[in-house]
Amino acid sequence: MPRANRRRRDDPPDVSRLGGTTSTTSYAGGLWTVRRLSGAGSTHPYRCPGCQQEIAPGIPHVVVWPADGVGGVGDRRHWHTGCWLRRDARPAGNAYR
To answer: Are the C-beta atoms of 80 and 53 separated by less than 8 Å?
Structure first.
């Protein structure tokens, strides 16, 4: 019998456990949900799509995903806060990785 406590793949991700403040903004022709994180809960490094550098555990940063929530957890990207604020200065074609 399958376990009933697992989230179904078509359910939107539960981002409330991430903590931080959430907002919605437009970027690259779409709406994005942006959550600011203190970094205190980070346990492993992430690669920032803005600068391709590592975001070390414990560093404050933002997590960004499509506002429609269709892609789920796999579409989340962790950005340095400064890189996200300068996202419009990025070359065309590299809008969101």
So the answer is: yes
Confidence of residue 74 (pLDDT cuts 50, 70, 90): confident
54 contacts: CB under 8 Å, gap ≥ 6: 45, 46, 47, 48
| β partners of residue 23 | 34
Q: What are the structural domain ranges in the chain?
A: 19-89
Q: 58, 28 in Cβ contact below 8 A? A: no
How far is it, in rounded angstroms, from Cα 53 to Cα 65?
A: 19
Of the pLDDT bands very low, low, confident and very high (cuts 50, 70, 90), residue 95 is very low
